[in-house]
Amino acid sequence: MEFLRRALNPWGENVPIGVSWDLIWAAVIIGAVFVVVHALLVPKKVGAGEIDESEAKGLPDRIQRHKPGARGFHWSMSATMFVLLITAFFPVIGIQFPWVTIHWIAGVLLILTVLYHIYHVFARQDIRNMWIGRRDMKEGTLGLQAALRRPVKRPRAGKYPVDQKMFHHAATIATLAAVVTGVLMMFRVDNFLWARNEYMFSDATWGWIYVIHGVSGIALIFLVIAHVYFAIRPEKR
Questions:
Q1: How far is CA 233 from the centre of its chain?
Q2: Cys-Cys with 1: which of 22, 34, 208, 228 at CB 3.0–4.6 Å?
């Protein structure tokens, strides 16, 4: 299995044109194996265990974890992400349809949701809540031992456990890489935002832009599989 697809340009130069499409199936298989192995090794646990009555005094039966704005962002990003993945990879596996316009419009919508999220984080929340510190590393180590059914007491996590923080950072890197390269690639298609210009970069540079875009898209396939799986598990909701 090759990592890159390469081709000769009109000047006889061997330049990259994108990632190997075999990596699509590799991401799907790795995601499926991860889900199966995790489901077999880690038992489902519902509930938070015993809670001190003094701590629970005055609290409602249910606590809102995410406000409507955060939920709206999540579902908007989810919808655009699924559209982007479908329009990117379905034509590759043989399901043909006019996908280019749908793809870049969904990409623009994704950029808008990301900009809203950035504003919301810096204006309404504390970005330090997502930093991974020593306490998180200790929590992650004990959590891994507990998942492997070793006799350890896992500390209570905050609003965002370390595994969710790690997923967030991985998704952030993959999404930002896809967004930046996607904006550059829009100069190679007709759109209403700016004039088409295929000669901004050399063939080799364009090729590496496509490679980065493809790698980020394939990484998002695995991340989406993992995210959907953990969303289904009761203790991760």
A1: 18
A2: 22
Question: What are the pLDDT digits (tens) for 18-57?
Answer: 999 999 999 999 999 999 998 888 766 645 455 556 666 6
Nearest C-alpha neighbor of 117 from the set 162, 173, 77: 77
- Cα–Cα distance for residue pair 182/169, rounded to 1 Å: 19
- Candidates 28, 3, 18; CA nearest to 221 is 28
Q: 207 with 18: CB under 8 angstroms?
A: yes
Which two three-digit tokens encode residue 162? 């370390």
Backbone angles phi, psi at 4, to 5 degrees: -115, 150
Q: Is the dihedral of CA 82, 85, 87, 90 positive or negative?
A: negative
* Rounded Cα distance, 228 and 35, in Å: 10
Strands 14-19 and 4-8: antiparallel
Is the pTM value of this prediction over 0.90?
Answer: no
Contact 98, 79 (CB under 8 A): no
- Sorted by where each starts, the structural domains of the chain and their CATH numbers stand as 4-44+66-236 (1.20.950.20)
Reduced to 3 states (helix: H, G, I; strand: E, B; else coil), residue 83 is helix
**Measured between alpha carbons, how far is 214 from 234 in angstroms, rounded to an integer?**
33
Give yes or no for a contact between 70 and 159, defined as CB atoms under 8 angstroms apart: no
Ramachandran angles phi, psi of 104, nearest 5°: -75, -30
Mean pLDDT of 99-122: 91
Q: How far apart are the first and last CA of the chain?
A: 37
Q: Which two tokens stand for residue 127?
A: 């970005």
Token pair for 152: 């350890």
